[in-house]
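Hi, here's the filled form for the chain we discussed.

Project: internal
Contact: R.S.
Residues: 403
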Amino acid sequence: MAPNHHKKSGTSLHRITGFLSLERNVTLASGAVFLLGFGEELWKKFLPKYLEALGASVPVIGLFGTAEDFLDGIYQYPGGWIADRLGRRRAFLFFLGLAFIGYLIYLLGPSWPFAFAGLAFVMAWQSMASPAMFAVIGDSLPPEKRAMGFSIQSILKRVPIVIAPIIGGIIIARRGIVSGVHLGLIVTLAIAILTALLIRMIDIATQPLHAENIFGVWRSFETGLKRLLVSDIFIRTCEGMADVLVIIYVTNVLRISVARFGTLLAILFLTTLIIYVPAAKAADRVGRRPFIIATFCAFALYPLAIVSAHDFTGLVIAFIIGGLREIGEPARKAMIVDFAKPQLRARSVGLYYLLRSLTITPAAAIGGFLWKVSPQTPFVIAGAFGVAGAFIFIATVRERFAS
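And the returned structure, exactly as it came back:
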């Protein structure tokens, strides 16, 4: 009886791993994102409040968001080149080492200008490693499983986020914003060491570097990918203009506590976790387009829902909408990988995000200055950009490009 039981268990496990696209290298890379994400999310969403405590004004906080978008842009293509050149594993370790230095600068920096220096290193993991993560999924999974692969990677990134902001909010409420963020950074440094051990287990053969400059990579983009990029720029302008100001608006204007803001973030990410797997499975079966449209509409509605809320209940609804922004993100990422030439995969992803992030770089700073008109203004303008982006995608990207 025992052998049959083990055989049945093994078959069931195989079905589950097959359904969820849990290929070994994808799982290891996603696990690394899971670990480091838990540490970062203890303090990351509270950074605007931390900068405020260190003496930064709201326009400076907006500039910090712009610096983040700028670094996110200029790091993407070099990250893709390094991933194609060194291989996925060595590239991940290099990016992690740079981020480790950034955490130390955040921890030891005595004033807000040091946070800008720390950001330059911390963004190496978030931005340079992104093309490598895309490439691991593209290398390891066939097209019909990629949306699910991105979904699982995103779930493993966000599962700790449901818990970490609540823990971070409680720590900050008890210890104060500066001491609370410092404790979170110490935890992150320890987790980074564990993450390095996990990354060392990744085993993907390094392909010969295909000699193609950045202009050649752009010429390799298909029309559908270029159209997606244009609409995505509008959507991310919407996000960049408002997101860095959300915690300031919720805590300063609506007078919601930092701890309750952590709860709102947990609601947002819990919503995301619930929708990921069914949406990804459907996107792999019926096409990407409907889910990308739904995502873009949610991006447009989120900042408008924030300024429409007058109490905690209204904010709960707004943050649920914020969670729905991810319903088509696995489909969008899978579309990018589908269009990318295999020998240029990491660099194509890097160039896509380079162009997107550089274009939206001014958004957060503009949002910070629009705040001076009224706290609601940046959110309303952001919503208008989001609506425009959704309409551009609907009008220009047909199903033949999206499936």
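Let me know if anything looks off before we file it.
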